[in-house]
Amino acid sequence: MDAVQACSKKHRYLQQLLRTFAWTILGLCCFVVPSNRAICGDASPQAAAASDKGILEPQPTESSESLLAWLSRSLGTRYFILFLFLTVNLAALMVMNGLAVRRDRIVPSALIQGLEVRLSEDRFQDARLLVKADTSLLARVLATGIPQLASGYDKALATMHEYGSLEALKMRERLGYVWLIAQLAPVLGLIGSVDGLIAAFDLIAHKSSPLRPNELAGGIGTALVATMVGLWIAAVAVAFHQIIRNRMNRLLAEAGILAERFAERFAAADRTHAP
Fold first, then answer.
1. pTM
2. Fewer CB atoms near the end CB (10 Å): N or C, the chain?
3. How far apart are CA 262 and CA 139, in angstroms?
């Protein structure tokens, strides 16, 4: 029965992993979906003369350009690589943290029900074997505390609390990198904005002939797009961090309560069967 539950758990885990991977690929594909943008080039002198004479020129044609290509052109190579690096790392961290806070990884229902059945039937040895066979956080916490019950319930409780605190610290540390990206993205966007404006004003300062709008569009476009991309990355990272942190705290608190309750039942069983 335990082997069947383990196989079923692995099957569900693989399904969720594939589902998460599929959604990640779908999200990345959104960046390469072509978007029609009008190529509004500068009017040539011949076009201006024709316009003055009342001759109508053809309307600008539309070209299929992906969002990724547009961002690369608007941001420039440096900032495009920086923001792409942040986006890829954020996507990877979102998948890792999303998988880490699944209920099956922290407080699986199958383990809780299995322990309840075995303990209610006084099958304490089977309950211990079930704890050792499970890889969830709750099972690992119990596995560190049960051997210490011989030294007293307080000793076992302290051991479980220490192990649980270390595991929670690892999970929060991994989630902290999402918050780091949420703080870095707007800063990089601001740096890109300042850099773009400096390039635009530097062109104005060193240009002797009258400037055309398209000559300033590069620097100003970098300034605006860099701010927009940085804020979008930060918004996604902050929202994900808050949702995952709340879920993590709730599951960790539940794991702590269940670990103390099961440890107390194991301790009571040891006292009952003590010679």
1. 0.69
2. C
3. 10
